[in-house]
Amino acid sequence: MKVLGIESSCDETGVAVYDTDAGLLAHCLHSQIDLHAAYGGVVPELASRDHIRRLPLLIRQALAEAGLAVGELDAVAYTAGPGLAGALLVGASVAEAFALSLGVPALPLHHLEGHLLSPLLSADPPAFPFVALLVSGGHTQLMRVRGVGDYALLGESVDDAAGEAFDKTAKLLGLGYPGGPQLAALAETGATGRFRLPRPMLRSGDLDFSFSGLKTAVLNVVSADDWNPADAADLAADFQQAVVDVLCAKSLAALKKTGLNTLVVAGGVGANRCLRANLDAALAARGGRVHYPEPALCTDNGAMIAFAGALRLAAGERRLSPPAVRIRPRWPLMELRPPLAAAD
Ligand code: KG4
Ligand code: ZN
């Protein structure tokens, strides 16, 4: 079965084709970074308009790359939430209309499920069950994953997400958008150990996170009279290490609690090299293994949506309600259920 996947929840327009027999046939992406850079963050209205401009071209490009005619598609999957309402509406409208015109099912998908399952697209995929650490711009969650749609929340951030903390701290240090990768790059040129930053909720006894205090601690350092901007790289390194220490400790605690030894890391912050090095070492020490998506699939993309759609379609999922453009800008992942076949 061949599924076209459309991702438009934030500042990336992604279109891909996944074939349940042949794997990923096409993966096209347009990043809006240049569009939003002048504003220091994503401007929702500009994001929506750019998705409108890009989607038709990217769909044509993906079909050409896959060597498919439109009539050969078996379904159109799209991100229905969570995300920016206007941006989601663009992808949902295009996907629903396209699927209707082809007479194939449209599959409204959860963005985080896409991220969560994306490491399964790698050459050496993890087997269920596993613990997933989802670290994106909007979410920081630890989850026990038994199968597609079978997710149990173990812990999550009570305030800022890890990516959000990276982005806000990058702003405090005068770095541009997108802040996370720039802060990580600066941290790699600095040394840890000069600034004593907190490890929030490290000993809270649960699997929840909190990152807003860490950001405030950085604010206090840069607002002090004796702050020297030449020390920004060292401060970035200490900030990054503090986030990584907490993410590592809680991930290990989640593995211990569930008795599992496989960790899957997904979402944009999963691209962070310091996080990867620390998690790899910690899991290797206990005979476990960490799985990541391929580097190109760490941030938002259409491949993860095409893939999650194909898994659900292959498991027999069909739309139960008539075609409609429905989006969920806020949508708890825990509401998902395993694929549901139509009663026909
Ligand atoms: O998953 P994603 O692409 O989009 C969301 O669904 O949020 O994640 C984007 C987040 C941003 O906050 C970005 O700053 C962060 O991931 N990020 C990083 C790195 N690359 C992206 N944070 C730390 N280190 C990185 N290398
Ligand atoms: Zn994402």
From TrEMBL:
<keyword id="KW-0408">Iron</keyword>
<feature type="binding site">
    <location>
        <position position="115"/>
    </location>
    <ligand>
        <name>Fe cation</name>
    </ligand>
</feature>
<protein>
    <recommendedName>
        <fullName>tRNA N6-adenosine threonylcarbamoyltransferase</fullName>
        <ecNumber>2.3.1.234</ecNumber>
    </recommendedName>
</protein>
<dbReference type="GO" id="GO:0005737">
    <property type="term" value="C:cytoplasm"/>
</dbReference>
<feature type="binding site">
    <location>
        <position position="272"/>
    </location>
    <ligand>
        <name>substrate</name>
    </ligand>
</feature>
<comment type="function">
    <text>Required for the formation of a threonylcarbamoyl group on adenosine at position 37 (t(6)A37) in tRNAs that read codons beginning with adenine. Is involved in the transfer of the threonylcarbamoyl moiety of threonylcarbamoyl-AMP (TC-AMP) to the N6 group of A37, together with TsaE and TsaB. TsaD likely plays a direct catalytic role in this reaction.</text>
</comment>
<keyword id="KW-0012">Acyltransferase</keyword>
<dbReference type="GO" id="GO:0005506">
    <property type="term" value="F:iron ion binding"/>
</dbReference>
<dbReference type="Pfam" id="PF00814">
    <property type="entry name" value="TsaD"/>
</dbReference>
<dbReference type="InterPro" id="IPR000905">
    <property type="entry name" value="Gcp-like_dom"/>
</dbReference>
<keyword id="KW-0963">Cytoplasm</keyword>
<keyword id="KW-0479">Metal-binding</keyword>
<keyword id="KW-0808">Transferase</keyword>
<feature type="binding site">
    <location>
        <position position="300"/>
    </location>
    <ligand>
        <name>Fe cation</name>
    </ligand>
</feature>
<feature type="binding site">
    <location>
        <position position="111"/>
    </location>
    <ligand>
        <name>Fe cation</name>
    </ligand>
</feature>
<dbReference type="InterPro" id="IPR022450">
    <property type="entry name" value="TsaD"/>
</dbReference>
<dbReference type="InterPro" id="IPR017861">
    <property type="entry name" value="KAE1/TsaD"/>
</dbReference>
<dbReference type="InterPro" id="IPR043129">
    <property type="entry name" value="ATPase_NBD"/>
</dbReference>
<feature type="binding site">
    <location>
        <begin position="134"/>
        <end position="138"/>
    </location>
    <ligand>
        <name>substrate</name>
    </ligand>
</feature>
<feature type="binding site">
    <location>
        <position position="180"/>
    </location>
    <ligand>
        <name>substrate</name>
    </ligand>
</feature>
<feature type="domain" description="Gcp-like">
    <location>
        <begin position="24"/>
        <end position="307"/>
    </location>
</feature>
<feature type="binding site">
    <location>
        <position position="167"/>
    </location>
    <ligand>
        <name>substrate</name>
    </ligand>
</feature>
<dbReference type="GO" id="GO:0002949">
    <property type="term" value="P:tRNA threonylcarbamoyladenosine modification"/>
</dbReference>
<comment type="similarity">
    <text>Belongs to the KAE1 / TsaD family.</text>
</comment>
<keyword id="KW-0819">tRNA processing</keyword>
<dbReference type="GO" id="GO:0061711">
    <property type="term" value="F:tRNA N(6)-L-threonylcarbamoyladenine synthase activity"/>
</dbReference>
